[in-house]
Task: structure prediction
Amino acid sequence: MPETIKKFSGLPVSSGSYEGTVKVLLSIEDFDKVQEGDVIVVHSSSPAWTVPLLRAGALITEVGGILCHTVIIAREIGVPAIANIENITNLLHDGDRVVVDGNMGEIHVLGR
Result:
């Protein structure tokens, strides 16, 4: 793995590891910027958010636990996910390259 610039930790909720580009979704207006395989970062989600979440290579959510909507989607589509990382929608930015380790609950920021 390339050198980690920053590391964040949260609750590991769907196993696996994935390296990709971050897209922060704050509202439904952000859905159009999602590309297949993006690492999607949200505060939380609801069923209305399902379509963009299905395109994710990994999912990260600020709030929630093993039964929150974002995490259920991650497990159903088989992608790594981490939950409960306070303020992560402000700490990560569109275009950041990260490795999401759903086994350990860690996000390694590699750069932009």
The longest helix spans residues 69-77. The CA atoms of residues 66 and 72 lie 7 Å apart.
